[in-house]
Amino acid sequence: MTHTPAPSTPSTPAALAGVRVIEMGQLIAGPFCGKTLGEFGAEVIKIEAPGAGDPLRNWRLLKNGTSVWWQVQSRNKRSVALDLRQPEGQALARQLVAEADVLVENFRPGTLEGWGMSPAELHALNPGLIILRISGYGQTGPYRDLPGFGVIGEAMGGLRHLTAEPGRVPVRVGVSIGDTLAALHGAIGVLAALYHRRAHGGPGQVIDVALHEAVFNVMESLLPEYSAFGAVREAAGSALPGIAPSNAYPCQDGWVLVAGNGDSIFKRLMTAIGRNDLGSAPDLADNAGRVARVAEIDAAIGAWTAQRSVQAVTEALSAARVPAGKVYTAKDIAEDPHYRARDMILQQPTRDGYTVEVPGIVPKLSVTPGTVRSSAPHVGDDTDAVLGEMGLSDAQIATLRSKAIIQ
């Protein structure tokens, strides 16, 4: 199939041009890492099971039989449909990996080993190979063999305990944040390993990312506060414990987030809401004093916002140079001019004949920006081309297809 042209093509080589990635994961964590590397120029070859392929193709809302999520997660990738349960499929995968720079996988520990593709075996074929392994609990430790999804990682990492109103059931963040955090940590590891190999002549290596550890790594002062004071941080709803004022406040037509926790910002906020008595109070001049009276401060802000619309509140606080913002829905994002001005909403053609709006690329590099070079593939779109590049003849490819080893 002809690849859909990218919305734009940079004049300089992509940052990861020349890097070949074999993606053997599915669903979210491994593929999100592959997506990130692909956006900055890596060639990403995704190995999928023949038939339905990656289950993400059928998750959430489908258009023309395929998830629109898939259109984002798998752009810039080539799909090779290969049955890794069969020895011949495993042999083909080893051939692909032998010529790659990076292997990304997010199977349960031991799966690669069962296919004859342990790190030792793969490094014997390709000493410079960088192997990213994302799993629930990591490749070692007493929990390594337990099944683990992102939501379990969020719980074990300490996040889920905090995501609730006080005294109520912990709720999940509305996206698969545990998987995505693991993917981003994995991408950082891949880039560090690539740099080490290129700049210092280092060998290939294994990057071991556990879902719960990626979550735990962003939990800020959670553990040090327990270690130093025995303090167990508890759920605080929309507030930021120990930082004041920073909360969500009711308006006539919705909610607004206000972050007035800088010393000078707090004074401007109090002036804007007509509470100079609080703004000039000596004991509220610093954060520690404001935390001691946070309920009073929140009540004052809430009383002011409750009499106004979200737009009136955000306009007034913007004029006062106080960080504040509405709680955006998908509709708000799609209609916001700032998102479009920064190319964070892209028109992406699909191979199913329609165009869909998708998130742009983050981070933004000034010389080697990320791009969308091709749309998300159908299962096995690139099988014949990739196998042909490996040196297989048309007859050999036809034989593999007749055995259902490839699609």
Automatic annotation (TrEMBL):
One of its GO terms (molecular function) is transferase activity. Signal peptide: none annotated. The keyword Mitochondrion does not apply. It comes from the Bacteria. InterPro entries: CoA-transferase_III (IPR050509), CoA-Trfase_fam_III (IPR003673), CoA-Trfase_III_dom3_sf (IPR044855), CoA-Trfase_III_dom_1_sf (IPR023606). Keywords: Transferase. The keyword Hydrolase does not apply. It holds the Pfam family CoA_transf_3. This is Formyl-CoA transferase. It comes from Ottowia oryzae. The lineage of its organism: Bacteria, Pseudomonadati, Pseudomonadota, Betaproteobacteria, Burkholderiales.
